[in-house]
């Protein structure tokens, strides 16, 4: 069973590698801005679904282009394939405020002040999307390269969202400035990395640690198993 991790997150790559999962990587770029008053649940579910749709669109384009040019697609999809997408956010105790990657120090320090000396949650949603391309006998997709045909079809998909409570120590302005200048906050939800320097800010967590880092490993492996069982039912 081929697995594509559609993520540019080095942490997600490391975690899936640590679990000895064979996978290929592709990056997708989507607009991650939350809608006005969008709930954390709606936002995170929309993010993983949008990332999956973007990955499928990219793969379809690749398949159609390679068929037209008689080239081998970069990501060959000759049998059902699982596409994994994920999104990680912080959520404040109000249950409504979503903490995403910081735009600048002002944004980061505002989030950190809201998390200082208190407990917030980190949510990671993961979506597994089982796709397949129907190949004809000569190994080309029987959908031809008609611009309107999309070689990939979605056979099954499932989303999970895991939540972990994280408690911070009281944070001073000097601590926040020092952390910002480390460069670590810039590409992380809530502007911190529990696996990095921000470990010193955490008194305790309640829930999955890997979920905070960006991929709840046990839950993701169970999701992959469910997708593989479904593929067996599909007779892959
Ligand atoms: C809270 C927390 C987040 N993070 C990271 C995990 C994610 O990479 C990032 C959240 O941003 P995401 O948008 O979920 O992921 P990403 O932009 O890094 O990658 P992609 O969208 O391509 O999948 O924050 C940590 O590394 N440590 C932490 O403690």
Automatic annotation (TrEMBL):
Important for substrate specificity (site feature) positions: 11, 88, 195
Class of the enzyme per the UniProt entry, highest EC level: hydrolase
Compartment(s): Cytoplasm
Signal peptide: none
Keywords: Cytoplasm, Hydrolase, Nucleotide metabolism
A Pfam family of this chain: Maf
Enzyme Commission identifier(s): 3.6.1.9
Reaction catalysed by this enzyme: UTP + H2O = UMP + diphosphate + H(+); dTTP + H2O = dTMP + diphosphate + H(+)
InterPro entries membership: ITPase-like_fam, Maf-like
Cofactor: a divalent metal cation
Cross-referenced SUPFAM superfamilies: ITPase-like
Active site: 87 (proton acceptor)
Family: Belongs to the Maf family. YhdE subfamily.
Function summary: Nucleoside triphosphate pyrophosphatase that hydrolyzes dTTP and UTP. May have a dual role in cell division arrest and in preventing the incorporation of modified nucleotides into cellular nucleic acids.
HAMAP family noted in UniProt: Maf
Protein name, entry field: dTTP/UTP pyrophosphatase
Lineage: Bacteria, Pseudomonadati, Pseudomonadota, Gammaproteobacteria, Moraxellales
Gene of this entry: maf
